[in-house]
Amino acid sequence: MPQNIINKLVHTMSLEDFPELTLLKKSETDYSKILGEVSLETFPNKYSDRDYVVAFDCPEFTSLCPVTGQPDFAHIKITYIPDERCLESKSLKLYLFSFRNTGMFHEEITNRILEDIVAACKPRWIRVRGIMNPRGGISIDVTAEYCKPGFISPPV
After folding, report:
1. Choice among 72, 86, 116, 121 that is catalytic
2. CA distance 62 to 50
């Protein structure tokens, strides 16, 4: 077995290996933050030499209608191929929770999530899908994608 593979297997990760992950280290979680007050945190991808898919599923996403202020409910699915950095899941959860008190149209929500994740971890490829529950008898399904220049996106 090559030495670089052995080194990856032997080293056990600890929180000290990731000083930039501030939210994961906290014992208490503040859910009252609003959009813009929560940072998406990342950590180094130990397997950046290969393509692999990471999928996040948030079936209980909530936001507010920007016109009426009524709550909107959705299912958010995030699928990406990391490059040098991976997205840390607790910070993603808190980021998504921050939409609870934010008034935005569904199309804006999906594209904003995509843009913020691309800015945070610069993935090779990412797809964000917002499956919005019906409002007024119509459901909305929004998909937004990004592909790093030069990378061939996976088949749909």
Report:
1. 72
2. 34
